[in-house]
Amino acid sequence: MQSLRRRARLAAAAAGAVIIGASGFLFASQAQAQVDIVHIGAVQGSIEDGDTNFASPLAGQTVFVQGVVTQKTLDPAGNQGFFLQERADATDGDPNSSDGIFVFNNQYSTLRTLTGSPAREELGANWTVAVGDEIVLRGVVGSYFGNIQFSGGSAYVYDLVDTGLDPLAEVEAVEIDPPDDARSSTEYMRRHLGMQMTVPADSVVTAGRDVYSSGGEVWAMRGDSAAAQQDGYAARAYRDAHPLDTVEGAFDDGNGYLFVIGDLGIRATEGTTETIIAPAKTYDVITEAATGGIYLSFAKYAVEVSEDLVLEGGLEPAGNEPVEAPGRGEAAVASYNIENLYDTRDNPNSGCDFAGNAGCTDPEDPEGNVRPPFDYVPATYEEYEAQLQRQAAQIVEDLHSPAILMTQEGEAQDVCSVNPAWTKDADLGPDRLVCDLANAGDANTGGDGAPDSIQELALVIAEYGGPTYQAVGDLDSADTRGIMTGFLYQPKLAGLSNVKSWDPVFGDSPEIDYPTEPDAINADVQNPKALNAALPQEVIDQCTSSGVYACNGYDVFSRAAQAAKFYFKDRHGRPVEEIYLINNHFSSSPNTRVLHRTEQANYLAAISSAILDHQWKAKVLAGGDLNVFPRPDDPFAEGQVISGDWTGPSDQLAGLYEDSGLCALYDVMVEDHPAAAYSYTYMGQAQTLDQMWASPRLLREIESAVTAHINSDYPADAYDFGEEPAYGRYGVSDHDPSVVVFDIK
């Protein structure tokens, strides 16, 4: 410890006073001010088992701490920071408190020195942040969304104690090994907040890289974890309720062994904001150990490694129970969330399409207002074209061109029609469609009844070499920001049935048994058709802007359910069988909007019941992005407090299970191929949000129900960081599509 104290002693001698403090030493500035150094562990606080309050016991206080700069950070916005950690032989000795802390320094690479301090005398007004410097820092203890830190606006360097150190030789760098239990894992990570931690070689990626405005992240587990030791495609993390979860029971440990790896340190090492963490996919193996500071952001503790991940490819996710093409006498229907398929045309009917638009408001439904505008428009037409081409390739190559596709998250826009000059070989690019981008409402002359983005997707499928598809959809299914459900079908294999005014669903007075007034759109006689109603008053009375009681407006759906009635054709083109499809996109976030999503399931059940009550042998397939898990999974375990005396499980799909007359095809998937029974990854875990539900008569004819793992396990696109898609067509959406194949007469 001689080197650590050398400058401290010199500073104190120059001031003429040495006062022993909490760290075993204390020194005064040349201005005779006494400086009491506290341990970083005292700032972070000691975390006992079962603690839930992780606030600093010194929050808001001005303190002096001493530590080695272990790592610098840089975010995509250019904000800089660094981790400061006490030497291994100068800590408080408490294993329950962290010896490291983060210092946020905004856009600066320097930190001010304190007036009258040894650092001011030696360095002048500023100290340049340097890894390997040991400093005494004075700062106000703050917190940013739970991350205890100092900020450069209120932090000063008091003394430069040593320079040129090898941080990892001086501080404790722990090899990450969180406990399996999620609550204990949180305590474990909190006890290391701000400290250097090492991801060991042979760690396994459990979810494809995500990309945010703040950078990228990769979820992983140790190679010696129980989940990593499972065979084949089962070697990953499933939510607790999944039969391949490593602990028996529906709600057990929360998979606390998972950890996330971030790229704030990589960006600082490379010195550019354009850097992003390597495009990892599920099952990749990290072959070289990587070290970085523990940073808390958006409720996730991330190892912000200094060097990029070195990866070795593991199993190919797309090979996990791939979709098989329908055989003779069979037909396929798919459900596919095409993730914000917005074109680059400024829709004159939308005030929240492009950046700079005024916004979208509805005085009768203020909860659905969009201010400022959501802007999901691609940066360039080339980026939009690439999305179309990749999705077209998936539909043809991986889904084997199903007869009908139910889509979610297409743009709710119809101001265009197919260019008469278009052919699959014409290479028209953005001129495939001719559009009226000037006139709004009834004055617009461009629409043709087909939503523009999925209509253009149909054309690109044909250009790719696939079959001819027709796009249809009711724009009344859109939410305020402008995404909707829709349908693509092959006229060679299927067609839209004619509907009558007396039809129990598609007619002018739908027989949907729901306890509130239907929306005016329900009176439209059409196919496909959006259906909606007001939320029950007892739900509206509880609506809030966030949390479990949050509501997306005062209708049952912010994105109305959309029903369609199709007939299939035999090989001679003759109609042979009808099917009812109900396309859905429920409100997002399984652990919020709980009451609202429960009503969406109830209303979907009422639509299905209206069909089956009229025709009990009807073949009904309901699907889409339901944004919550199937039984027995649930965002709330049994007995877990949801709110007040309301406890889990929330069972948000109870209406579907009990009142719809439909059967969950997830149950079929999890029995037939459990390792492939999921459609989404989040927080490193495989889970099911996209679901299919079949009526009993249709269930008897189903040959297979499969989810194609071509998206959620692959790295998200990083165009903003100058990176082209790393895996071709894979990863173009954040959801995996599902395909149901059944016999037709």
**What is the correct CATH architecture of the largest domain?**
4-Layer Sandwich
Count of individual beta strands: 39
Mean pLDDT: 94
CATH top level assignment of the largest domain: Alpha Beta
Terminal-residue CA separation: 84 Å
Instruction: Specify the structural class.
Output: alpha+beta
Tally the helices: 13
Strand line-up of the largest beta sheet: 12-13-18-19-16-15-14-17-20
- Radius of gyration (CA) equals 29 Å
CATH superfamily assignment of the largest domain?
A: Endonuclease/exonuclease/phosphatase
User: Can you tell me the number of structural domains?
Assistant: 3
Q: What is the helix fraction of residues, given as a range?
A: 10-25%
Contiguous uncertain segments of 5+ residues: 1-33
CATH fold topology of the largest domain: Deoxyribonuclease I, Chain A
Strand fraction band? 25-35%
Shape summary: elongated
The main sheet comes to: 9 strands, mixed
Keywords: Signal
InterPro entries: Endo/exonu/phosph_ase_sf, TAT_signal
Protein name: ExeM/NucH family extracellular endonuclease
Organism: Glycomyces terrestris
